[in-house]
Design brief:
7-stranded antiparallel sheet, two-stranded antiparallel ribbon
């Protein structure tokens, strides 16, 4: 065997050792990743876009294996059969859902049972300012919207609907705002007459923010005016002596308005 052949055999041996080392490194890395991810679970993912109240069944969902540590079974749906549904009702989407979404509890609900002339509608409400943990299924609420000033008009807070029953409150979910921030929102479902549903849909799209005001179980009493605008707010502080404006009575010293 001449020196050139010996060098060739040596190079082949070194290449073989390198290949084994690379294979061992990849195997070790994959094993470490698998140990880090832990066990896998099966969740449901939408295979196509689904509109609000459209039927959800095995034809529009697919089962996907995912790391269990990232998918809490109390949040994500693993099987449609785990959702309590009356025998005469189908499962429908509670709002518009896009293809690829992993189904969570609150995204799917039993098909609404409505009487003649009624509409069931869900809106997204800020979890902190809108619900705050006190509004529950069956609660009576007033729905308020704040609208910015437009075309030299006044900014107003308007009571959109008075004393409406909350049919359902979905699961908390994140929502990205126009400023890039993320806040928690909750889908809240109501059953309304068509005109009221139309007003609520308008308010959800064009109001700066929607709030739910819990109504006493003993009765709401007189609701008062249905709107309060910036002009009305300024009138509250018109002074009676010169340019001095009277401060609102807050019950605490050294607090109020002055110009």
């Amino acid at each position: 065997m001449n020196p050139r052949q010996r060098r060739g055999i040596l190079l082949m041996v070194v290449a073989a050792i390198g290949a084994v080392a690379v294979f061992a490194s990849v195997f070790t890395y994959l094993r470490a990743q698998q140990d880090q991810l832990g066990e896998f679970a099966t969740v449901l993912r939408l295979a196509e876009d689904v509109d609000a109240y459209q039927r959800i069944d095995g034809q529009v969902v697919e089962q996907v294996r995912v790391p269990r540590m990232y998918f809490d079974p109390e949040v994500f749906i693993t099987d449609l059969s785990e959702i309590d549904t009356p025998s005469d009702q189908e499962l429908v989407a509670s709002s518009h859902l896009e293809e690829g979404v992993y189904l969570q509890h609150g995204m799917v609900q039993p098909q609404p049972t409505l009487t003649t002339g009624e509409r069931e509608i869900a809106i997204m409400v800020n979890a902190e300012t809108g619900v705050a943990g006190k509004v529950q299924r069956g609660s009576l609420v007033d729905i308020y919207g704040t609208f910015p000033a437009q075309d030299h008009g006044a900014a107003c807070a308007i009571r959109v609907i008075t004393e409406v029953e909350v049919l359902d409150i979905g699961e908390l979910r994140p929502q990205e705002g126009d400023d890039g921030g993320v806040s928690g929102v909750v889908p809240v479902t109501f059953r309304l007459e068509p005109e009221a549903a139309l007003q609520l849909a308008y308010a959800e799209d064009f109001a700066t923010k929607l709030r739910l005001a819990l109504v006493s179980a003993d009765g709401g009493g007189s609701p008062g005016s249905s709107e309060f605008c910036s002009d009305d707010f300024a009138d509250l502080f018109e002074g009676t002596e010169g340019d001095q404006r009277r401060a609102p009575d807050t019950g605490r010293p050294d607090e109020g308005w002055s110009q």
